[in-house]
Amino acid sequence: MYTYKSEILTVGAKWFSDKADANDIELLDRLINERAASGWELVTYDYMATSVQVKGAFVITFRKQQ
Fold first, then answer.
1. What are phi and psi of 28, to 5 degrees?
2. CA atoms within 13 A on the CB side of 16
3. Residue 53: its pLDDT value, please?
4. What 3 state SS string does the chain have?
5. Residue 29 · residue 45 · CB < 8 Å
6. Three-state DSSP class for 61?
7. Angle at Cα 18 formed by Cα 13 and Cα 20, nearest 5°?
C-alpha cells in the first residue's frame, strides 16, 4: 500500500508565453530529486498555465511505500 502526496510548484512569471521554460524544468527536477532522496517516487505531474498567462504551476504527485 502507498501513501500519496501532491504538491503545487509555482513557477516564474510568463509575459509572452504560458509555456514552461528551462528554468521551470530546473525547479521541477530539483523538487523531484529532493523528494526522491526522502523516499518519494514521482507518480505524475502536469503543467497548468493560467488564463491570464502571468504565472503557471506544476501539480506533482508522489507516492511512498507504507
1. -65, -45
2. 1
3. 59
4. CEEEEEEEEEEEECCCCCCCCHHHHHHHHHHHHHHHHCCCEEEEEEEECCCCCCEEEEEEEEEEEC
5. no
6. strand
7. 80
* Eight-class DSSP state of 51: T
Whether 2 has a pLDDT exceeding 90, the answer reads yes
Give the model's pLDDT for residue 54.
Answer: 66
Segments making up each domain of the chain, as ranges: 2-65
Q: Kindly report, residue by residue over 14-65, the tens digit of the pLDDT.
A: 666 666 778 888 989 999 999 999 999 999 999 887 666 567 788 999 999 9
Q: Which residue has the cell 530539483?
A: 30
pTM: 0.79
How many C-beta neighbours within 10 Å does residue 12 have? 12
